[in-house]
Every structure is written in structure tokens, then in C-alpha cells.
Amino acid sequence: MKAAPEAQMRLLDLQELDTRLDRLAHRRRTLPELAEITKVEERLGGVGDALVAAQTEISDIDREQKKAEQDVEQVRARADRDQKRLDSGQVSSARDLENLQSEIVSLQKRQADLEDIVLEVMERREEAENRLRTVEADKEAADKELTELTERRDAAYREIDGEAELVRTARAGVAGDIPGDLLKLYEKLREQQRGVAAAPLLRGQCQGCHLQLNTVELNAIRAAAEDDVIRCEECRRILVRTPESGL
């Protein structure tokens, strides 16, 4: 392949711009905020499960408390009815009177037991509420942290994308100075060579693979025409001759 020396030199400018774009893309992919956001989102997932569990626990306790209070009310109402019968003097039979008094005592004991259950349920509800408040506080803190991290990430994205846009504009201008066939080869090699397609020959060394060329290879390059496009025998990248090539 043939290309004017000036066009070949422009390959180095193009490579420098592409390397900057690659670094910007890598920086964008590896922002520290991204890993931190993932951690916070995972934490929020666990907090969300804990929140549902705490809310469900309180809901279950509320049903339990409601039933216990209804049981207390039913026993109290029955004891009140029996006490009114006793106080009214309607029960004249000694045996019936004894049975009624015994039932009132039994109901009072049952009521006391049920009230103890209500108190125990209320205590458990208070503990569950404390757990819920703790989980809600954790969620609020995680939500705030996620918001801050997202804002930092987006700010970094804007900075990187703005710089990348300037580099792409400059790249378009440089690419316009390079012949189509040479540019096509360059783009193909970039895909094959992990982004580095063109490298300068510096003091007899390829700056793409950093291997020193032997005497035979250097003599061949010396003998080549100025517009010959040289390839490194080792890495096959385009070797661009410069005043510092050592030829």
C-alpha cells in the first residue's frame, strides 16, 4: 500500500485521538460510582425485603391484637350480664346462685388472662414498630446515598461525554486527511490489535509491540520508498517513520 508520508504521520494523530476516546470510554465504564451504586442497590434490595417483612409482621400482630381485644370484650360483656343477674335478685335458687357466682369468678379470671395476652401482643407490636422504624431509617439513608451517587455519576458522564464529543470532532478532521484505503486498513487493524493500529518507529523499536527491529528489518525499511506503508513484522501494526526512527 502507498500513502504520502504526511498522510502516514496523520495516522499517529488519529491513533492518539482514538486512544483518548478508548480511555474515556474505559473511564466511563469503570467510574467508582458505578460499583458503589451497585452495592447500594443491592443493599436497598435487602432493606426492601426487610421492610416488607416488618410491615407484614405488624399487620399480623394487629389482627392478633384485634382478636384478643374482641375476646376480652366478649368475656367482659358476659361477666357484666351475669353480675347484673346476680345483683337483680332474680336468681333465687341457692344452687343457681352458686353456679352464677362461680361463673362470674371464672369469667373474671378468663378476662384477666386475655388482658395479659393483649398486653403481651401490644408489647410485641411496639418492638415490631421499632424494627420497622430502623428499617425505614436504613432505607431513607440508602435512598439518599443512591441519589447522591447517581448525581455524581451523571455529572461524571456529562464531563466525559463532553470531552469525548470534542475528541470525536477533532478525529473527524484528522480522518479526512487520510486516504480511504489507508484509513480502512487502520480501522481493521484497530479491531484486531486491541485499539492500537498505528505506532511510530522510535530508535529502531516498534512502539506498538515495543520490540526492537533487527538489522535486516531496519535495512528493508531504509530501502523502502517514502510513500510505502510499512508494517511491523512482529505485531503487523502500521509502522510510521519519524525523524526519531533511527534509520
List the helices and strands and how they pair.
Blueprint: H1 5-29, H2 32-88, H3 94-175, H4 180-192, E1 198-202, E2 205-206, H5 215-223, E3 230-231, E4 238-241
Parallel strand pairs: 1-4
Antiparallel strand pairs: 1-2, 3-4
Helix pairs in contact: 1-3, 2-3
Structure notes:
It is a single chain. By secondary structure, the chain is mainly α. The protein has 2 domains: 5-25 and 179-241, no CATH class; 31-175, Helix Hairpins (Orthogonal Bundle). Helices cover 75% and strands 5% of the residues. The chain contains 5 helices and 4 strands; from the N terminus they run ααααββαββ. The protein has helices spanning 5-29, 32-88, 94-175, 180-192, 215-223, and strands at 198-202, 205-206, 230-231, 238-241. A hairpin with a 2-residue loop joins strand 1 and strand 2 (205-206). Helix 1 (5-29) packs antiparallel against helix 3 and helix 2 packs antiparallel against helix 3 (94-175). The chain is rod-shaped, with a radius of gyration of 42 Å. The mean pLDDT is 94. This is C4-type zinc ribbon domain-containing protein. Residues 14-193 form the CT398-like coiled coil hairpin domain. InterPro entries: CT398_CC_hairpin, Oxidative_Scav/Glycosyltrans, Zf-RING_7. Residues 62-93 are annotated as: Disordered. Residues 62-87 have a biased composition (Basic and acidic residues).
